[in-house]
């Protein structure tokens, strides 16, 4: 996951390099009189890496535009918090200052995508970012409608 402008720039440069390398590799394989299927199979890992890098760049660009998807699962709260910081246009340093913690702490937390974050800590980050957060819980569907009014003993 791309978390900073520097990582974004590096990823763009790496994508350009990968595209050039992929093209050179394709030309070399075609000179070996391999079939198109054999060439594609040989290039599959490089193509997969390039596509993954392109997807990470696109995700970062979406976050920067503030295009954060709805949070449907609390297990992804870490990625969402990172996206909220990026959307706000804040650096790791700015968030660290606002939270009164070290940049290294925020960096470690984001590298781990806030694994194991508590609700209190997540709320503190949301408050620091000025993000209003609303949790909507859908009522579970009961198999037996008659059990809806029953009170457990």
Structure overview:
This protein has 153 residues and is an all-alpha fold. The chain has two domains: 5-64; 74-129, 434 Repressor (Amino-terminal Domain) (Orthogonal Bundle). 63% of the residues lie in helices and 0% in strands. It has six helices and no strands. The chain has helices at residues 5-31, 36-64, 77-88, 92-99, 103-111, 119-129. It is extended, with a radius of gyration of 23 Å. The mean pLDDT is 91.
Annotation keywords:
153 residues, mainly alpha, 434 Repressor (Amino-terminal Domain), 2 domains, 6 helices, extended
List the helices and strands and how they pair.
Blueprint: H1 5-31, H2 36-64, H3 77-88, H4 92-99, H5 103-111, H6 119-129
Helix pairs in contact: 1-2, 2-3, 3-6, 4-5
Name the overall outline. extended
Q: What's the overall average pLDDT, rounded?
A: 91
Overall number of structural domains? 2
How many strands, which pairing sense, and closed or not: the largest β-sheet? none
Number of strands: 0
- Gyration radius, rounded: 23 Å
Total count of helical runs of at least 4 residues:
6
Helix content: 55-70%
CA distance, first residue to last residue: 48 Å
Uncertain parts:
none
- Give me the strand/helix succession: HHHHHH
> Structural class given helices, strands, pairing?
mainly alpha
* Share of β-strand residues: under 5%
Summarize the model shown.
By secondary structure, this protein is mainly alpha-helical. It has two domains: 5-64; 74-129, Orthogonal Bundle (434 Repressor (Amino-terminal Domain)). The protein has helices at residues 5-31, 36-64, 77-88, 92-99, 103-111, 119-129.
